[in-house]
Records
---
Amino acid sequence: MAETLHRLRRMVGALVVAVLLPLMGASVAMADGQIVGGTRASISTYPWTVYLATTSGFQYCGGTLVAPNKVVTAAHCTEGDSPSAVRVVAGREDKQSSAGVVANVTKIWIHPNYVDATIGSDVSVLTLDRNLSYATLPIATSADSALYAAGTSARILGWGTTSSGGSASRYLLTATVPLTSNATCSSAYDEYSSTAMVCAGYTQGGTDTCQGDSGGPLVAGGKLIGITSWGNGCALAGYPGVYTRVSTYSSLITQQINS
Ligand code: 4AZ
């Protein structure tokens, strides 16, 4: 129910920006990019990229297929939800198409320590009602610390808004962003935890995940290294996007994959 309220708030926010502000004659500075500052991606290139939708088909988060019947997403995407309220859409690049498959969810696991994204443990694993015939993405483990080096180019993917408070994308979008150092992210955010999180973004901003991209993948070295989690606005200079550090939670995630 908390997540339903979040969703309603986001939908009302989008309505205000899309309808009311133009009627009021207000001009809104809009980054005109994709994700923010990205481009369209083919689902065939990233077949493990999925989205979470309501039973009426509204896309509200992203996710990653990590086993034929398991999806990694953010805890803040599934908090308070019953499995019966969640659909996983795979193999569909265009939200307005009927391509791919819509799976039901039989179980939602949320990290036991999860309270709020800015505290950490923002990770959830969904069990699907069937095995999907799409390629899966391996998750980063404690052996993959090299993938987290500052400056590493990482890929973001999602159907979220193309500007802060803007409208969501009809199509899957992608971009690459450099991982920041822990020092850089600590300077930006008092809440940053170098064990629970990793940050990515250009010093000058311009490219980032945004509302609705949450739960989706941050990929480097052919592995899931992060889960889109939070940030101050989107694509702002000095405020990188914050992602769940997957390697910290890999044992628990693997336990869920094998459960
Ligand atoms: C969100 O609200 C959200 N710029 C996702 C990612 C970021 C900020 C907000 C990072 O889902």
---
Amino acid sequence: MHADYTPMSIADVQRLRADLDQRGRKLVFTNGCFDLLHAGHVRYLEQARALGDALVVALNSDQSVRALKGPDRPLNCENDRAEVLSALRAVDAVVVFHDERATTLIEAIRPHVYAKGGDYTVDSLNREERKALEAAGTEIRILPLVPGKSTTNTINKMLGSNDANRLRIAVLGSGEGSNLLAIINAIQTGTLNAEIAISLSDQADSNFLKIAREAGLPAQFVNGGNNPRKLSEAAQKEIFEHLERARVDVVVLAGFMRILKEPVISAYAGRIVNVHPSLLPKHKGANAPQLALQAGDSETGCTVHLVTAEIDAGRILAQAAVPVFAGDTAEILHARIKIEEHKLLPQVLNEWHERGLPVRGAGAS
Ligand code: GRF
């Protein structure tokens, strides 16, 4: 097992190419997403490898897979895809690239042979890529695809008829992402029949985004602007567009620290939930565990509620209480509350879905 597997750098591949060249051998290059590996991929890579003496696979990064195939992909994050690919007999090296096209890599590596899957002809290759290949004196080889084997086919088969029934949720967060993880776990263990269609964060380096990416979820950073509690108008719009593109049924705010306004609030009225670390209506706003301590409460907890234009004031869907102990700090108390949040939030989503969600476009109840 390679827990800390790292793909090859371009400089490493350039050295490999120079070494092969010196020995009169050939470097074969191909590129792709290789999201859910199937026999078609394996056969294709074997054939590509047979065209020379070493095979380098340029793997599309998560960001470029999303740009090419939409927000539901990739299913597996780039490090996992690179690790799996590099374990194949036919593959000598994997390098991750971020553009939609492999032009820059082709220019840097100047492979002896370029292999491409049979849905292309030499003429339908991207113009820029083809120019770079011709400039490098690379031989272009189109390999036949294995009929009936494709990632999309595999995904459709796995989804089966249950797909139509599955709740498509968006999760928005700014921080630790422990509630996101609780939702992921509930989906994986089958206690929540849902799919995270998009995860969004206003914090580029948040643990929330790290968890989302490691789980292979579509994950996006949205620049919210300078005010840490507000979202710029452009960001409000950008979030709305992400939600629409991902066709979500429900929006879950799981530690999202900025205030969501129009157009999302109206378009998703009655379908946006927030989890808050207090027994609302007590202790609205930020630092709720600290407020419970300052108030001398002997009990506090968490609330899952609908989101409306007024902060922490929408209809309460469920609550769970926890005791406050002498000597509690805000951190200790918050950690105790979160244990309940992690059970309550997936449970509410599931029950809510089973009882029938308000249809798209319905007003807040
Ligand atoms: C939770 O306590 C939630 O109630 C509050 O923000 C916190 C988010 O925690 N709104 P995490 O990022 O899910 O770990």
